[in-house]
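TEACHING EXERCISE
Course module: macromolecular assemblies
Task: Read the component lines below, then compare them to the predicted structure of the full complex.
Student: A.B.
Group: 4
Components provided:
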Amino acid sequence: MAVEMRIALRNYGKIDPLKIDEYISLGGYAALKKACAMDKAELIDQVKKSNLRGRGGAGFNCGQKWAFASKADADQKYVICNADEGEPGTYKDRLIMENDPQTLIEGMAICAYAIGATKGYIYCRGEYPQVVAILKAAIAQAREKGILGGFDLEVRMGAGAYVCGEETALIESIEGNRGEPRFKPPYPPVSGLWQKPTIVNNVETFAVIPVIVEKGSEWFAAIGDPAYPGTKVLTLTGDINQRTFFEVPTDTKLNEVIYELGGGIPGGKKFKAVQVGGTSGAFIPENKLDTAIAFDKMAAIDATLGSGAVFVLDETRDLVDVSTRIARFFEHESCGKCAPCREGTMRMYDLMEKINAGEGSPADVALLNKLGRVMSYACLCGLGQAAPAPVLSTIKNFAADYNAKFK
Amino acid sequence: MINITIDGIKTSVPEGSTILQAAATVGINIPTLCYHPDQAVKANCRVCVCEVEGNRLLQAACSQPVAEGMNIKTRSPKVIEARKTILELILSHHPQDCLNCIRNGNCELQDLAAEYIIRDNPFELKIRDLEKDFSTPSLFRDPAKCILCRRCVDACNVIQTVGALGLEKRGCEAMVVPTLGGSLLDSPCVMCGQCIHACPVGAIGEVENIDELLAAIADPDVVVVTQIAPAVRLALGEEIGMETGELPMDVFVAGLRQVGFDYVLHTNFTADLTILEEGNELLKRLTTGGTLPMFTSCSPGWINFCESFYPDLLDNLSTCKSPQQMFGSLVKTYWADKMGIPAKKIFSVSIMPCTAKKYEASRPEMNSSGYRDVDIVLTTREVGKLLRLTGIDFKRLAPSPFDSWMGAYTGAAVIFGATGGVMEAALRTVYEVVTKKELEDVNFQFARGFEGIKEAEIDLDGTKVKVAIAHSLANARKLMDQVRAGESPYHFIEIMACPGGCIGGGGQPITKANAKRIERIKAIYEEDQALAMRKSHLNPEVKVLYDEFLHEPLGHKSHELLHTHYHAKDKKAF
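Instructor-supplied answer key:
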């Protein structure tokens, strides 16, 4: 039985996001106060022990990241919130920022204290100007109340590049350069914004930090899947009755999400596939739906939890056509820096267009498989590495759709 | 030291080494394309990817530092397949134009395609419909051939700080374009040609003037005369299968006669002349309150840079023309008269290590002889092509001396080709003029070497002169900003646009690393060392020139033929 559990969205609908006093009346900023009285190493250890893993898609242990930045020796450190939310079908971060911006600010302030940073940025996608307005107002209120102490926070806007959701491309963008990823190592906690130690975390990750500090690491670690504990905000789109959002423990299963929370497929149609994690996620067939959404459980079925987007498709959907549109998205969004992605996303789209138009052959599919495989381990950043995944998963799991299109 | 295993070989390398560096220590050569030893690591071509045990992702050897116990495979089947696929991707988006391409036979992409045995490319050939840019007389761009390695962008923006090249658009539409998106001529380009050395393929090259030369040679009514710059000979050997410095000067002259030149003369003659004129100009400024510091003016890339970015400091430039242009105005006046050849029959060629010289020769004011002083400029690379065209065996060719009246030179002229050489040559003469004493040790060691900015205080028997030397325009900028701020302590500054000076010029054999520039610099000073005459004012033909024609340095005739003026660049870019 799937039940919602709201941690990131605990204040959703309960407060006016533009009234900081309402956030405080529900216990807001008590965690920051508690954190600032703690030993920094102890605070970081708590976050580490909670086993909170990044909610942006990469799933790296949050506390571990903070520990690297804390250890690094520098005259200036930065905290960045990745609010680029570029993954199509995802709007969880918008939900948090529009309805409870202070939890994000509090989470960032706690991080700043922990690692010794005095400056922070929220990088918000350019397509969310109304969110930016809310964030700016919220920051002004927090500053006025004197809550943030010496932590100086500002909002920066993106300008329509999916690739700027990649943390180093985001950093480059803040620096005023082309939004293109850097090679790693060095990693941002060691050398990030202006080559200084930088923490980049997702909105949802920061949003749960105050609760972890308040209620303790053990409480959080006990929720959901032990390897990827806590909750995840899922946004449901596509052929699903409940096209809305849910926050659920991470041991919730996909079939529970789709049929219980989601209310199943409309119009009495049969389920065909679900793409979880956004546009770079794999298409999961029906026989794999008995899988928990936790990061490692998804990896075991060659899928990713990613951003938590849940895009459902019914039996009438042509997956070759869907994959072709996805290939076009990646061709458009590739930054162009590295050869295998710049050229590879273009070729993937060309080949998919050819197949989709009925001009393709098994040789084209074989080429897609090889190209996708090489891209997945040779490209410079996650965009190129993940771009082939949806195409490769449909080729593997839905061969019939492709066979139907061959010449 | 870090212990690693690479292709089964166990070795230890210093901490901080990349896989690429570690591999080189054990003789393993990992292929690269965007990597450049003198630029920041880019890791964008992904050709150098290797397998690292325990990691699903392949790691770029150029950027990945080694770690204790790392087990690396540089040519496993997974790696070979990845490299081949990446090359196929690049090649299928690249014009299959090798036979017509300026880099045919000297192209990094060709080399890799051969090494990786590219046969039937599975990707459909797509060529970008981008026009070639021949807007400048010096350089052309063929953007369809660009593989987006960005080495040219680094050369122009970081090493030269000119900012004429940048990136536009995103993804598969990304392109390297001239700044402001127009032609190269509209951009801040100073035509130094360092981008050519950086480019692994034929996306940038020099505008070739070989056809004009061959037409002039074929015309029985035309007398084809050439000058040769000091930095050419030692590098030219590299174009015909010899070592740097190996081609003897008199064999080179013989080779040029085989190509069809009627007379072979030397820019070194006018380099010595330049020292006489410029040395006296400096002394005049020092003693009569002229504009100081005075900058040298023989590097046209530098002149373009000054006119572009420091038009307020044009009065600091020496009014002396470059040796090339001094030569040009004399060959159709003084030399033509002495030889009894009508000036209008002379086709004046200049063989240079430089691309900006093609522009310099075309400047409207460079016609003091009454004709265009230098008709065409050929780069070292173009002459290499001409020599290969003759099919001569240079090891067996009988040597031939220079022709007269403008062929004699001293070691001071030879060192013009290296950064610091003009300064040293000037000091060898200025010392004797000011102190009236003989300079016993002509070697000014401070002026030599690859250090970006060199400086010294020279004691001329009580008179102290502070001098500075800069090569590459990033270093020039540092000295210029100081001058503009009124904080420059110097009296005389030598500036060369190209790293290493002319030996690293845009027209030289494709120079892949500063190590080669340093090797050429060594050859220059060895050549100087071997000469009996090493002071410009001792050049006997220069003495004849003054006696018979010019009469005195900075005199009326000199001003008419050997001096020039500058103007701020009139471009939208500024």
